[in-house]
């Protein structure tokens, strides 16, 4: 059960103290307080943990300062929608809005290799009006002898170049809690020229200690990738670890699931789950066509498979696209064969925009018919 307080209630309010004292005395129930910051407002939510079936929502809702009470219908208590359309959805970070109602594109390098390539990428993004990118500094690899990323040594020039070209948010994977500290320290040392969205990769989906550590920090939002070999429900429960530790600024990313049924693509594209995630949770939903498809193969119509996959996700309502680009894919240290060229950036962005228009037209049709 979730008790949502009025937006003007603070932890110093008498109503807050009274409500928390009352709820804390309920037998067999423990309480956990969360501050939820959305794009327009911030709310205090009190989570009642235990057997809440016998509790009266009407009595709790009548407490001073309580706006409403929501009964939980799924295991993911904080991130779940729970059939309540009024709860805050989305968030604002470093001037960029992330919600279930808009669309952001994160085109960039899967792995940072040279300052020259980073600058070419960011310069191209600015020329196309983009303020977000992906830059991999820490790279978990299947083979221990494969390139593992430049790690903290590349952070200064990545952040400084982001500031130079007006990039506001960089999606960057972390595999250890010390990486979060290194990112924070480097941002401070370089004067906070940009922002970082921490990425939890598919291999770490159920690394629960890492999820707890990343969830405990409030500085950075999180891009959480679905586990490639587990169910959607298992991945959602894993994402809940982040929110349960205090950070509910989470974007859920679909990146394909590992099965030979997806051949010849790298993974079986799972973008039909975009509307499912938006129905079950309040998280913005991302699609990663690069790691789903894993190649630059073209269909007879002249479109790349990964562009078709992107369009499928966007037409289904995706709110973020994470895609690999590289100035010289043949020289890329990670996943070069699937990276698109900078000369193809205009085409890709226009194709995404066309798919978004299609989604918005479908939305309008649903409102018109209202069946």
In angstroms, what is the radius of gyration? 21 Å
Q: Report the CATH topology name of the largest domain.
A: TIM Barrel
**Helix vs. strand class:** alpha/beta
Count of DSSP H/I helices = 11
Low-pLDDT residue spans: none
Distance between termini?
31 Å
User: What share of the residues lie within helices?
Assistant: 25-40%
* Average pLDDT, all residues: 92
Regarding CATH, which class of the largest domain? Alpha Beta
Q: What sequence of helices (H) and strands (E) makes up the elements?
A: EHEEHEEEEHEHEHEHEHEHEHHEEH
CATH-derived architecture of the largest domain: Alpha-Beta Barrel
User: What count of domains describes the coordinates?
Assistant: 2
Shape summary: globular
Largest sheet: 9 strands, parallel
Strand content: 15-25%
Total number of strands: 15
- Assembly form of the protein: single chain
């Amino acid at each position: 059960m979730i008790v949502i307080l009025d937006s003007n209630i603070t932890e110093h309010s008498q109503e807050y103290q009274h409500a928390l004292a009352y709820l804390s005395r309920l037998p067999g129930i423990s309480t956990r307080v969360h501050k939820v910051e959305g794009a327009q407002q911030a709310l205090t939510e009190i989570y009642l943990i235990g057997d809440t079936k016998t509790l009266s929502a009407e009595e709790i809702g009548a407490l001073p300062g309580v706006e409403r009470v929501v009964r939980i219908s799924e295991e993911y208590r904080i991130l779940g929608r729970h059939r309540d359309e009024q709860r805050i959805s989305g968030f604002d970070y470093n001037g960029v809005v992330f919600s279930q109602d808009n669309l952001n594109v994160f085109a960039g390098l899967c792995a940072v290799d040279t300052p020259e390539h980073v600058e070419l990428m960011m310069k191209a993004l600015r020329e196309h009006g983009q303020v977000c990118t992906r830059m991999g500094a820490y790279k978990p690899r299947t083979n221990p002898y494969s390139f593992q990323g430049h790690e903290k040594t590349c952070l200064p020039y990545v952040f400084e170049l982001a500031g130079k070209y007006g990039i506001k948010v960089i999606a960057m994977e972390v595999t250890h809690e010390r990486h979060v500290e290194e990112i924070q320290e480097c941002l401070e040392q370089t004067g906070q020229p940009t922002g970082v969205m921490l990425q939890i990769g598919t291999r770490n989906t159920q690394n629960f200690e890492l999820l707890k550590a990343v969830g405990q920090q409030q500085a950075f939002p999180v891009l959480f990738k679905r586990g490639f070999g587990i169910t959607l429900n298992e991945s959602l429960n894993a994402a809940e670890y982040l929110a349960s530790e205090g950070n509910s600024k989470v974007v859920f990313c679909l990146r394909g699931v590992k099965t030979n049924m997806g051949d010849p693509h790298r993974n079986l594209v799972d973008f039909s789950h975009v509307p499912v995630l938006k129905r079950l949770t309040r998280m913005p939903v991302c699609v990663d066509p690069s790691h789903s498809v894993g190649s630059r193969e073209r269909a007879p119509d002249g479109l790349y498979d990964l562009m078709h996959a992107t369009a499928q996700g966007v037409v289904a309502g995706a709110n973020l696209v994470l895609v690999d680009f590289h100035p010289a894919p043949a020289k890329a240290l990670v996943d070069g064969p699937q990276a698109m060229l900078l000369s193809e950036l205009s085409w890709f962005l226009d194709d995404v925009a066309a798919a978004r228009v299609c989604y918005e037209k479908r939305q309008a049709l649903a409102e018109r018919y209202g069946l």
